[in-house]
Write a structure and sequence with these properties.
globular; alpha+beta; 3-stranded mixed beta sheet; 6 helices
């Protein structure tokens, strides 16, 4: 049980860190050739990352043209189910009934360390050189956020209040880890379905990785946002958000505090981004009402993904600012003026898979980044 659980956890981590830390200037999509169908092939630039994406838009495909292997839940022993608390390390955070005891039954959300973490909380970073190379100790944290005590529920199947509790757990863990001066950045992500990396984990969970560095992709976004502000004295994220609200061309949904839309330069099929209407670079500073509204829109877009596209495997990741640390400490250097202009956001995308199309003659489209709103799921 333990080996399979943690192997799957590692695969998800490897994929997420690879996506976050990978440095590319051009994303070339598979099957961008029009194939004589008259597709409109474009190159689009991601304004937040300066990355170019080749997009093949068209072919008249609809969400029903895609099919995915449905997520099959295991029926064996699960360490994350209620009454199996002894099978995990002691919890570091939990939302539970007032009359329940820690590490016992009566909880709704539970956070536990991974039994075999990629990074460990003990020790010092001790950054040093080996010849011309840099290295440091694998210090950080690797935690499992168990989103529900029920084995038969996915995140989009939970009630809004339950999803709000999951977000509350995210916030609590980020705030706690921010107090650890060794930690520079916290990555929270969710892999749903076999194709997204959850090969052996049937229970609905998210994962948290606390890093002693700031990923290069995050630093690049900070510099782009800083340069944009220096040029226009406006926030790049607020400007894009206002444009999306005005045109409503790629809009998926909105409420009083959040907007969900398909990015102009989507890199993955059915990719969507959730941004706050209020300017906030720190996810952990979110208030109770904002947390509830985030739960509402997150449940809405994930349910649409399940209903319209047939329950595809997806990855959900939180893009947050690095922690503010004074210069000269271990890790990357973060300025208050830079981190304050980076908005926190959630991004969700379906992993491309050539088997995802019903018609094998059009499998070239499986790798294209067709905007979600253009695929018939917009409001």
């Amino acid at each position: 049980m333990e080996a399979t659980h943690h192997r799957a956890s590692y695969e998800g981590i490897r994929g997420q860190l690879g996506k976050l830390c990978r440095v590319t200037c051009l994303t070339i999509l598979s099957g961008c050739d029009s194939g004589g169908r008259g597709s409109n092939v474009q190159m689009r630039k991601d304004i937040f990352t300066d990355r170019w994406v080749i997009v093949a838009d068209g072919d008249g495909l609809q969400p029903t043209d895609f099919h995915f292997k449905k997520f099959a839940r295991g029926t064996g022993f699960c360490p994350f189910c209620e009454s199996n608390e002894a099978a995990t390390p002691p919890e570091v955070f939990a939302i539970r009934n007032p009359d329940s005891s820690p590490n016992g039954q009566g909880w709704s959300v539970r956070v536990v360390p991974n039994n075999r973490p990629r990074l460990r909380i003990e020790g010092q970073v001790a950054r040093r050189a080996e010849a011309l190379h840099d290295l440091m100790n694998g210090v950080g944290a690797h935690e499992i956020i168990v989103e529900t005590s029920r084995h038969d529920r996915s995140l989009h199947e939970l009630e809004t209040g339950q999803i709000s509790d999951v977000i509350r757990a995210y916030i609590a863990r980020i705030a706690d880890l921010e107090g650890d001066k060794r930690v520079r950045y916290v990555l929270i992500f969710k892999s749903h379905g076999e194709g997204a990396g959850a090969h052996t984990i049937s229970h609905s969970i998210s994962q948290l990785i606390a890093l002693p560095i700031t990923p290069r992709a995050v630093k690049a976004k900070l510099m782009i946002a800083r340069d944009y502000f220096a040029l226009k004295e406006r926030c790049i994220y607020c400007d894009v958000l206002q444009q999306e609200l005005k045109s409503r061309k790629r809009l998926i949904g909105e409420n009083g505090d959040f907007v969900a839309f398909a990015p102009f330069a989507s890199r993955f099929p059915f990719e969507m981004c959730v941004l706050p209407k209020f300017h906030s670079s720190a996810f952990s500073r979110m208030g109770a009402t904002q947390r509830e509204n985030l739960a509402v829109i997150l449940r809405d877009v994930l349910q649409r993904l399940d209903q319209k596209v047939g329950g595809p495997p997806y990855n959900l990741s939180l893009h947050d600012r690095p922690f503010l640390r004074p210069r000269g400490t271990t890790g990357t250097q973060s300025r208050r003026t830079s981190t304050g202009i980076l908005k926190s956001c959630l991004r969700c995308f379906v992993l491309p898979d050539s088997s995802g199309l019903r018609d094998s003659s059009t499998t070239h489209f499986a790798g294209s980044r067709r905007p979600l709103a253009l695929a018939g799921i917009s409001v």
